[in-house]
């Protein structure tokens, strides 16, 4: 699913380079609405194994082990994330939960089991077929922490039920129901980082950047090792055009999870660009474009922006030509064409 994108015009970085063409301010990508970073809820729905067998997805098997290494005998709840939005949830059976996804890419697996701290693990699925990830639960120390990391507050059954219903509603794009259930979860467990994260994602979907920032900042304070919470916080700041503030949480997210997501890198690259850190913007936007595996072709325009700001006009023009060649049907194509024409008119590139 694609969400509507505002006009491409945006403010250029303050004190842009003098030799950058004047049209650049008009051609800049608009502030990235977070819904661009939230992968399509419909496209992310857990599919059927028939889809995978026909080469249109992948089966992800999550095996949950107790601290001894054996398959977890009791039930655990496994939630699959792609980007910052839940992509499916399963209860384990004999320590195993399976998901069939319709698109490959970067995933996060979160396992919650009674009596154990929540465990998060990243997974890259780079081809159709089958993938497996093993998650090992850890024992809680007498002080209530694991390896020196404070444990998350335990959810009561009622709060967990509300949270699960809210996550499901988010996944199915039922925003009204998600607001209802997550509001109940917040009332019952406002200090739980998972509840705060889910509330933050809901606020992002509602384009309420300030509310998202508030709850996600609290989530990162309670759980300073949550890469996804830092990523979502950085995206909220980026979407509200607070690019200088967005850089730190986005960098922190990628420090915690080096694989990261292409959405995180796209937000970071845009923030670098608006802070005139053009070399870094170019490098990270190129990484985001490659990591997106075709899901975010519009990132190429940010690559072209960075190249233009660095005075590499021919390289920028080549990126724009490639975008027009491969994505002439996209709404951004008209802007890319005008951009090329302006570069030629300004004598920055050779006219074709």
Structure, described:
With 352 residues, the protein is α+β, with helices and mostly antiparallel strands. Helix 5 packs antiparallel against helix 6 and helix 10 (243-256) packs antiparallel against helix 11. The two termini are 36 Å apart. The chain has 3 domains: 36-150, Immunoglobulin-like (Sandwich); 152-260, Serine Threonine Protein Phosphatase 5, Tetratricopeptide repeat (Alpha Horseshoe), CATH 1.25.40; 262-352, Tetratricopeptide repeat domain (Serine Threonine Protein Phosphatase 5, Tetratricopeptide repeat). The chain has 15 helices and 9 strands. The protein has helices at 24-27, 34-37, 41-44, 49-53, 157-171, 175-188, 193-205, 209-222, 227-239, 243-256, 262-274, 278-291, 299-309, 313-326, 332-345, and strands at 58-65, 77-82, 85-91, 96-101, 105-112, 119-125, 129-136, 145-146, 149-150. Strands 3-2-5-6 form a 4-stranded antiparallel β-sheet. Strands 4-1-7 form a 3-stranded mixed β-sheet. Strands 8-9 form a two-stranded antiparallel sheet. A hairpin with a 6-residue loop joins strand 5 (105-112) and strand 6.
């Amino acid at each position: 699913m694609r969400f509507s994108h505002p006009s491409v015009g945006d403010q250029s970085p303050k004190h842009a380079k003098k030799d950058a063409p004047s049209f650049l301010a008009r051609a800049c990508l608009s502030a990235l609405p977070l819904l661009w970073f939230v992968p399509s809820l419909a496209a992310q729905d857990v599919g059927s194994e028939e889809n995978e067998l026909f080469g249109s997805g992948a089966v992800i098997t999550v095996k949950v082990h107790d601290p001894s290494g054996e398959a977890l005998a009791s039930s655990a709840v496994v939630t699959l994330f792609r980007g910052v939005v839940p992509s499916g949830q399963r209860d384990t059976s004999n320590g195993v939960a399976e998901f069939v996804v319709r698109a490959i890419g970067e995933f996060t697996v979160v396992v919650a089991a009674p009596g154990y701290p929540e465990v998060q693990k990243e997974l890259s699925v780079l081809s159709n077929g089958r993938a497996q990830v093993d998650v090992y639960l850890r024992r809680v120390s007498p002080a209530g922490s694991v390896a020196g990391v404070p444990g998350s507050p335990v959810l009561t059954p009622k709060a967990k039920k509300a949270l699960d219903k809210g996550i499901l509603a988010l996944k199915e794009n039922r925003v009204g129901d998600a607001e209802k259930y997550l509001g109940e979860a917040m009332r019952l467990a406002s200090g739980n980082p998972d509840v705060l994260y889910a509330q933050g994602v809901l606020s992002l979907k509602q384009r309420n950047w300030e509310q998202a920032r508030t709850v996600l900042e609290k989530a990162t304070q309670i759980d300073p090792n949550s890469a996804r919470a830092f990523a979502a916080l950085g995206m909220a700041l980026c979407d509200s055009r607070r690019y200088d503030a967005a850089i730190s949480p986005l960098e922190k997210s990628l420090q915690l999870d080096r694989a990261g997501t292409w959405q995180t890198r796209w937000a970071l690259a845009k923030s670098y660009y608006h802070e005139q850190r053009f070399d870094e913007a170019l490098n990270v936007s190129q990484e985001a474009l490659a990591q997106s595996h075709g899901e975010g072709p519009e990132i190429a325009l940010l690559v072209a922006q960075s190249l233009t700001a660095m005075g590499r006009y021919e390289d920028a023009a080549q990126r724009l030509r490639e975008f027009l060649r491969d994505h002439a049907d996209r709404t951004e194509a008209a802007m890319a064409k005008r951009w090329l024409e302006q570069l030629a008119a300004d004598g920055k590139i050779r006219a074709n």
